[in-house]
């Protein structure tokens, strides 16, 4: 398979140009979200739900009848109350989590278990583009942890506690917000995996793409492990929502932030419109029983060959388990 790596996302300027041009290209739609596509009786856990894409997804799924559990570091309880008011739903809830802190993830999973029990859909929407390297309690850089390691840890904890999937509610779905920037890295940096290194804003976009490559590789390996033997136990989906007018660049210098706000407002899509592929993967009956898929905007697309290579997936999984407690996940009370 041809490797379609490019340098389109190596700098903020190139990333913006690429994102805008992608919006004006023709894409064959994978399907439509119908008014009859509902989630009544189903429970959805969404990370990064207090703003941007995650907030828009939480609102739209609440409108479709879901029990929405917003996992956030801030905005509690105001953001949940805002969605409840906007949608008329009395089934919107919030739980606190700091994805840069493994102890906080453990506490959040315990709270979900106690308050809600098993969920039907997990959506990993949280992401960060940091201004500079910041070391976390676990040791690695915050961008590495939030964009990749936290989803790995959180999913494994939810699976260990049997908190994803319920009999009679269809195939449980796990949806990960990735990015087309996952195609940009030339190779994996296996040596010194997870080791903290300092960097500045000039490397943030490049590193963001690398961490999305890790996330997308994890998605493929997760599906291989959970759906071995051709039996689909879980639907594992990833997507790139395209360029979004959000606050993901909130750590950029003030002058650049001002410029980006103008560009984002003029050319990028609102979170409400960008939520389309996440909502489709969550609600569409067309996706029922499907083991693995990747959408770019609302079109099906092959993932980068590095991400789909089983050897890369196996090595990434083993290195990540070694990094995080050698694969032994805490027990949830």
Report what the structure shows.
The structure is a single chain. The chain has helices at 12-23, 52-63, 78-87, 102-115, 142-160, 201-226, 254-267, 271-274, 276-283, 305-308, 310-323, and strands at residues 43-47, 67-72, 92-96, 121-124, 172-177, 234-240, 292-296, 299-300. It is α/β, with parallel strands linked by helices and 333 residues long. The protein has one domain (12-321): 3-Layer(aba) Sandwich (Rossmann fold). An eight-stranded mixed sheet has the order 3-2-1-4-5-6-7-8, sandwiched between helices. Strand 5, helix 6 (201-226) and strand 6 form a beta-alpha-beta unit. It is globular. The N and C termini lie far apart (46 Å). The model is unreliable at 1-5 (pLDDT under 50).
Could you give a quick summary of the protein structure above?
With 333 residues, the protein is of the alpha/beta class.
Oligomerization state: single chain
- Share in helix: 40-55%
Low-confidence stretches: 1-5
Total DSSP E strands? 8
Q: How do the strands of the widest beta sheet line up side by side?
A: 3-2-1-4-5-6-7-8
Instruction: Classify the beta-strand content into a percent band.
Output: 5-15%
Instruction: Write down the domain tally.
Output: 1
Backbone structural class: alpha/beta
Largest sheet: 8 strands, mixed
Chain-averaged pLDDT: 88
Tell me the Rg in angstroms: 19 Å
Which second-level CATH architecture applies? 3-Layer(aba) Sandwich
Query: What is CATH's topology name?
Result: Rossmann fold
Beginning-to-end CA distance, first to last residue: 46 Å
CATH superfamily: NAD(P)-binding Rossmann-like Domain
- What is the global morphology? globular
Order of helices and strands: HEHEHEHEHEHEHHHEEHH
Alpha plus pi helix count = 11
